Amino acid sequence: MPNKHVVVVTRKLPEAVQDRLRRDYEPRLNDDDRLYTTDELLTLCEGADAIMPCHTEKLAADVIGRLPDSVRVIANFSVGVDHVDLQAARERGIIVTNTPDVLSDATAEIAILCLLGAARRASEGEQLVRTAAWRDWSPAFMVGVQITGKRIGIVGMGRVGQVVAKRARGFDMEVHYHNRRRVDPALEQGATYHPSLDEMLPLCDVLSLNCPATPETTGLLNDGRISRLPDGAIVINTARGALVDDDALIAALDSGKLYAIGLDVYNNEPDIHPGYRTLTNAFLLPHIGSATRETRDAMGYRALDNLDAVFAGREPQDRVA
Ligand code: 8YV
Questions:
Q1: Average of per-residue pLDDT across 215-228
Q2: Which residues touch 193 (CB under 8 Å, ≥6 apart)?
Q3: Ligand 1 and 300: CB distance under 6 A
Q4: 216 is a catalytic site residue
Q5: How do residues 95-112 score in pLDDT, each as one tens digit?
Q6: DSSP bridge pairs for 51
Q7: Quick one: which atom of ligand 1 is closest to the CA of 290?
């Protein structure tokens, strides 16, 4: 039997995924689930054929440049690939793959949680109960905003955006979207396409960010764009923190321009902008969009399917570089 290919697995993956890795590869596992330094990672990669990283490993151009020649493929355990310098990988002839589709439902669930959590003041309410500060009930107590029948604008009508739209329809929301291209009308399900983001913004009672972080989308939600939203709008972000200008968002929450936000992703996770922590109108989650047992297994299998394809000499289905 030929030697098994060596795979560096940067974080502890679900047991079933690690079992398959042990069966088909020679994995270098991280059972302590410790975040490797770049130097540790590069040392671990000596003689390895592949890396299975998460978004916690920043594979910038200089890191890719220092990878040993043996590494032929980076099979990400994530759909987002903003942590990998794809051009640098291409230049070194390293194949890069991601894990689309399998996390769309889980991430859309968290988008709806962010939406409801922000609109119905879930953080505040939970705090009141937990800290025994809940004293009374009155008609004016903990009044939030109803989302049923409101307008939602989705930025990025890809796989996740489409599921968010579907769930939003369950709340009778009117769906608008901005995307680089109009999606197939059969997939729109009555949603209105806006080629211009700026023109869509005044229609958004709720704005949901669902596009990848790229140089073009970095800082997309800035002061100017926030000012185009209706007063009292709600913003939710389950994509990437880089899409948002934190100072502008925090200022808009402070001033009351925005009613509330629901965030699952941030710039510089987990050391997020401290301004978010004290805002009562912020519903904040720790990047758990894909964190369900079912989805994490499926992400691992999908990454392994990609690895299997590369080592079998086939084109991996989720090649991004
Ligand atoms: C993952 C995500 O948990 O897949 C992505 O792009 O943002 C998350 O849902 C994480 O990135 C895993 O590496």
A1: 98
A2: 157, 177, 178, 179, 182, 183
A3: no
A4: no
A5: 999 999 999 999 999 999
A6: 8, 74
A7: 9
Does pTM top 0.85 for this prediction?
yes
Annotated active-site residue 269? The verdict is yes
The response to whether residue 288 sits with its C-beta less than 6 Å from ligand 1 reads no
Q: Which CATH number fits domain 6-102+293-311: 3.40.50.720, 3.40.1190.20, 3.40.50.1240, 3.30.2130.30?
A: 3.40.50.720
**Cβ-based neighbour number of residue 72 at 10 Å:** 17
Q: What is the DSSP letter of 73?
A: E
Set 124, 174, 188, 269: catalytic member = 269
Q: Which atom of ligand 1 lies at the shortest distance from residue 80's CA?
A: 6
Q: Given CA atoms 104, 170, 285, 237 in this order, what sign does their dihedral have? A: positive
**Fold that domain 104-284 belongs to in CATH:** Rossmann fold (3.40.50)
Q: Annotate 122-165 with DSSP letters as a single string.
A: HHHHHHHHHTT------TTTT-----TT-EEEEE--SHHHHHHH
For a pocket test of ligand 1, which of 55, 97, 104, 240 has the largest count of ligand atoms closer than 8 A to its C-beta? 55
pLDDT tens per residue across span 145-161 = 999 999 999 999 999 99
Catalytic entry in 20, 120, 240, 296 = 240
| Residue-level pLDDT at 201 | 99
**Tens digit of pLDDT for each residue in 115-174?**
999 999 999 999 999 999 999 999 999 999 999 999 999 999 999 999 999 999 999 999
**Arithmetic mean of pLDDT, 183-204:** 97
Indicate whether residue 80 lines ligand 1 (CB < 6 A).
yes
Q: Which of 54, 78, 82 to mutate to test the pocket of ligand 1 (most atoms within 8 A of CB)?
A: 78
